[in-house]
């Protein structure tokens, strides 16, 4: 195998699963799939799933979602992935000192690898964490009613290319 790919941490809600906010409902889209998970309905945007699938050659995709293992159980066939993704486990008791509930687990999982993180709930603590890392770090914030867009996918692809060129 060649050089190690950068990690792409993928949230589900607000990235693949769309939901409304008080100011913006998800648009009616012909490309959605309704999925019931644990008694909760999710509107999965299939074109967002296709965009995520387009990133598999540029990144090691890793679930970074409160869904944890359920993301593999419920979404692989919807997205078109043939193999389960690695999953970050969020032991909130272990990382409760963090300003954002995902930071400690992501930091422990990534180590010193370059990473991108796509999520709809990034905050100032996430941005401070990203700038303080010694490895290249890209944060991509989505809108929960739109999720992963073409512009996000292009940004991620270009960033991964830049990381590969720097490593060469």
Give an account of the 3D structure.
This protein is an alpha/beta fold and 168 residues long. A five-stranded parallel beta sheet has the order 6-5-1-7-8, with helices on both faces. Helix content is 32%, strand content 20%. The mean pLDDT is 88. Strand 7, helix 4 (124-132) and strand 8 (137-141) form a beta-alpha-beta unit. The chain has one domain (7-167): Rossmann fold (3-Layer(aba) Sandwich), CATH 3.40.50. It is globular and about 40 Å long. The protein contains five helices and eight strands, in the order E-E-E-E-H-E-H-E-H-E-H-E-H.
Radius of gyration: 16 Å
Taken together, the total number of domains comes to 1
CATH architecture assignment: 3-Layer(aba) Sandwich
What's the overall geometry?
A: globular
List low-confidence stretches. Answer: none
The end-to-end distance, rounded to whole angstroms, is: 15 Å
**What class would the helix/strand composition place it in?**
alpha/beta
Strand order of the biggest β-sheet: 6-5-1-7-8
Order of helices and strands: EEEEHEHEHEHEH
Enumerate how many helices there are, as a single number.
5
